[in-house]
Write a structure and sequence with these properties.
Strand content: 5-15%
Strand order of the largest sheet: 2-5-8-1-9
CATH class of the largest domain: Alpha Beta
CATH topology of the largest domain: Rossmann fold
CATH superfamily of the largest domain: P-loop containing nucleotide triphosphate hydrolases
Helix content: 40-55%
Number of helices: 15
Shape: elongated
CATH architecture of the largest domain: 3-Layer(aba) Sandwich
Distance between the termini: 56 Å
Order of helices and strands: HHHEHEHEHEHEHEEEHEHHHHHH
Structural class: alpha/beta
Number of strands: 9
Length: 301
């Protein structure tokens, strides 16, 4: 990260509390340890790997950090089989073909190198983040990196280490303002030590019921304080059932919103029955909840 950018961010966020406050203003309640980890990522310009179960707020952390910094968020969603070219750049073949036809129509001679100029380049997320002009660094979110394969992971390591990539036809592109990179993983597989060594690290666990209730009140004001608290406790009880897909913060927020749509002021067994589809996503999990008893889950046993 350039000294100018470091100086600016240093003034805006002189300590962890300042960054935590900025995240709070975006609606994201970061615990002290997560706020400290993100603070180091911002100030040191070092990538950070956020791991945790689905739905605990890893992606939202990146989105909120970009909002707090008032900068662009560039997101790369990883998936099985993703290739470096798909994440980095590709050539605009229709535009190249149009240029060839235009040259033929005007009897102009077109060399192969004429087809691989900047105007024909389509930047994908990684190149977009590297090319970000500033003045503040973009936040590059590499989401669910554990879904990509070893080859792509190795490519990421090299790119993050150098903050540059080489386009054979155009040469090396080096970031003038290196992005703040956040990688997320649901830990469906172990990532290589080489990547982990390059990154700061933080595990985001499920927050306690009090924190979940606080988040719900922020995100779903219509739910009311009592309903937010009841939903938070019920979600905690659902996670104790060892479901295939334990509900996370996102499901808790959606559940509170659905209950509010139905005009519920408290979480009853009947209300839970009506809205179970927003919080339980597998038939096996639904069966487990019914066997445990909806009344017990909502606290009316």
């Amino acid at each position: 990260m350039s000294s100018v950018v470091s100086s600016e961010l240093g003034k805006r966020f002189p300590d962890v509390a300042a960054l935590a406050g900025a995240l709070d203003e975006t609606g994201y309640l970061a615990g002290e340890q997560l706020a400290a980890a993100l603070f180091l990522a911002v100030r040191m310009g070092q990538p950070i790997l956020l791991e945790g179960e689905p739905g605990v707020g890893k992606t939202e952390a990146a989105k909120s950090l970009a909002a707090a910094l008032d900068t662009a968020l560039v997101r790369l969603q990883c998936y099985e089989g993703i290739a470096a070219a798909e994440a980095l750049y590709e050539w605009n073949y229709p535009k190249q073909l149009l240029a060839i036809r235009l040259a033929e129509a005007t009897h102009e001679q077109m060399r192969e190198t004429d087809l691989f100029r900047e105007e024909f380049l389509l930047a994908r997320p990684l190149l977009t983040a590297l090319d970000h002009p500033g003045p503040r660094p973009a936040v590059l979110l590499i989401d669910e990196v554990d879904r990509a394969d070893d080859e792509f992971e190795a490519f990421l390591f090299e790119m993050l280490a150098e903050s540059s990539v080489t386009i054979p036809e155009l040469g090396t592109r080096r970031a003038k303002v290196p992005p703040i990179t956040i990688l997320t993983s649901n830990r469906t597989r172990d990532l290589h030590d080489a990547l982990k060594r390059r990154c700061l690290y933080h595990w985001i666990g499920y927050p306690d019921a009090a924190r979940v209730a606080q988040i719900i009140r922020r995100r779903v004001p219509a739910a009311g304080s009592a309903l937010a608290g009841e939903v938070a406790v019920a979600v905690s009880r659902l996670r104790a059932l060892e479901l295939t897909k334990p509900p996370g913060i996102s499901e808790a927020i959606t559940w509170a919103g659905a209950l509010s749509v139905f005009g519920a002021s408290s979480l009853s067994a009947a209300a839970a029955e009506r809205t179970m589809s927003v919080v339980v996503k597998y038939p096996e999990d639904e069966q487990a909840v019914r066997e445990a008893g909806l009344a017990a889950v909502v606290g009316h046993d």
